[in-house]
Amino acid sequence: MTIRVIIVDDQAMVRAGFAALLSAQADIDVVGEAPDGRRGIEVSRSVHPDVVLMDVRMPEMDGLAAARELLNPPVGVTHLPKVLMLTTFDVDDYVYEALRAGASGFLLKDAPPADLIAAVRIVAAGEALLAPSVTRRLIADFAQQRPARGRKDPSLRLNGLTPRETEVLELIARGLSNQEIADHLVVAEQTVKTHIGRVLSKLSLRDRAQAVIFAYESGLVTPGDAPA
Q1: Burial of 45 per CB tally in 10 Å (0-12, 13-18, 19+)
Q2: Core-most of 47, 57, 70, 104, by most CB within 10 Å?
Q3: What is the pLDDT of residues 153-190, one digit of tens each?
């Protein structure tokens, strides 16, 4: 199946470069571009992409505001694309807020071309993607410094998880892959996938990225801890 992508970035050269790279892949089709968040929303709701590559900082409307609108649409709008944030900074307040808004992850703009291609495929497949070099530090730092504001205590929602599901959620928050979690728990990778699906469903979370945020904000894990 072909992955439909739109690119939202205020720099024409960046859009052109990413479009050329992605369009060269047999399984990816760039179906639209936009120079700012507002136009990006319009294009997305017109062409219904699978993945939106969204720059963080843009004029008119920044990527964070645009991601919020795309992922929390008004009544009557049913299309929900995956949003992959693009940033030039490895630690950016916008990134954390975008993940809380429902973005599927972020990638540094200067990442190797192969990483961009892989990122689009990963996000389109329903997985979350966070730049490996900064994931754990970034999520931990921002979760510690910016606890949830004005929300019902997330820790109360943990009561609905089984002990094993809670353990899997904790390992997700540590940045472990499915295979690493399987190795840690000495179970099959498919079993881990089943647990993750149940965790996301019970906590009403979109994907792995939101699970990481929830784990820190609920107090299940704290920055600097290591899996037992």
Answers
A1: middle
A2: 104
A3: 666 678 889 999 999 999 988 878 888 899 999 999 99
Structure token pair of residue 207: 């994907």
Under a CB-based contact definition with an 8 Å cutoff, are residues 18 and 116 in contact? yes
Of 10, 73, 12, 22, nearest to 45 by C-alpha is 73
C-beta of residue 179 within 8 angstroms of C-beta of residue 189: yes
Separation of alpha carbons 107 and 85, rounded Å: 6
Give the other-Cβ count within 10 Å of 223's Cβ.
Answer: 14
The predicted model scores a pTM of 0.73
How far lies 117's CA from each of 21, 32, 72, 165, in Å?
8, 17, 26, 32
